[in-house]
Amino acid sequence: MRIIYNKYFPFGSFWAINLFGYVFCRVDMGRLPETAKNHEYIHSLQQKEMLFIGFYLWYVVEWMYHFVRLRSFMKAYYALSFEREAYAMQDDLNYKYKRKRFAWMKMMG
After folding, report:
1. Which of 55, 74, 76, 104 is deepest in the core (most CB within 10 A)?
2. Which pTM value belongs to this model?
């Protein structure tokens, strides 16, 4: 995973976005703390196990499902199984070593 600081991306109130193992961070929001780096590393693992394109397809479809159900952009985002795993485990800096493949599937529901 590589971290790239810049002025413009991601947009809005998001601090970082992981695209194909490259984490883009807004420099005006400061350096990423270790827990945020761990959160993004978990996304890198999820992306690799789904061969990247599968991750993004699933992410969009699941987000659309939750958006229709919850009628809120951010509620749909937090309901995503990928995000639920990453947020639940971001404080465990050893999680990447003990994580089981497709662990995000246990967060669906």
Report:
1. 104
2. 0.94
Q: State both tokens at 104.
A: 């995000």
Dig out the tokens for 82 from the structure: 């990928």
Residues near 97 by beta carbon (within 8 Å), at least 6 away in sequence: none
Residue-level pLDDT, tens digit, the chain, 109 residues: 999 999 999 988 888 999 999 999 999 988 999 999 999 999 999 999 999 999 999 999 999 999 999 999 999 999 999 999 999 999 999 999 999 999 999 998 7
